[in-house]
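glyoxylate reductase (NADP(+))
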Amino acid sequence: MGVNVTDSDKTQEEEQQDLPKVVLFRPPPAFSLIGEESFASNKFHFLKTYDSQLPLDQFLSTHSHSIKAILSSGGAPVNADILQLLPEVGVVVTTSAGLNQIDIPECRRRGIKIANSGNVYSADVADLAVGLLIDVLRKVSASDRYVRQGLWAAKGNYPLGSKLSGKRAGIVGLGNIGYEVAKRLEAFGCFVSYNSRKKKPYVSYPFYHDVCELAANCDALIICCGLSDETRHMINKQVLSALGKEGVIVNIGRGAIIDEKEMVRCLMQGEIAGAGLDVFENEPNVPQEFFAMDNVVLSPHRAVFTPESLKDLSQLVVGNLEAFLSNKPLLTEYVDSE
Ligand SMILES: O=CC(=O)O
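Structure:
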């Protein structure tokens, strides 16, 4: 007489074996920041390539028929080489705001959907962009250092900063984040204009098709776009010189959107007035020249992270994966940006 194994007889491990697999190539920063358990579900099981001794291609080939989805985070590329080893994958869900690690055309070609982080980070990133701008203009961090070093008493007043209200703010990339930055700066009394791949029908801010022209017509350039072949080093010598001696740049997008060497040179030679930077070309390495510059405010790529936004992220990631696995529409399907 055969023995019937019912679901209740199965161990937790056996149950997990039966679940569709979601592969990860590196732990998303959110796992250590709010705990991996926040991303758990009884509808799927994570397979971590970084926990295996096997070479990546061997690991992926071994599990290729059970891997239905990829959970991607910044850094580890999801490219054609990886995707061709995973024929059953139908969705890439990302924990990052940026999508530059994903080969989007290859996903399109293979009919693989992409779920992005939607709006979960937009308010936090926009807040930090405005914070960096205020800090650079009003010298908040530099004045703090001055006071702590006892220089106020020893040397007298610190040089004046400049006013935010009334400034012309140029937003590069009017996606979710750029739009939140624009709304905030408008509320601070700034005159907002923008550059984007396409003019946005839902805003009345002046649109500049040419980023150089935008730079020439603003006091602060705020980089909010994603990194792509099109935007890599888009902020080059010409754009920085159009921004000019009184101009300030803020970058919360990706480091490589700005030609960093050129920006360092412009700052050293006083060709632009200051910078507020959350992202860098070669993170976590930051050009040493910045350390001595009081007109530069540095942040260690933290714009997206607050416990609140990470909690929203975990719900969104689980929601997207569960939706995909139940043939329901994704919560935040990426269609096109900016
Ligand atoms: O920069 C951070 C992100 O893209 O999530």
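The longest strand covers residues 67-72.
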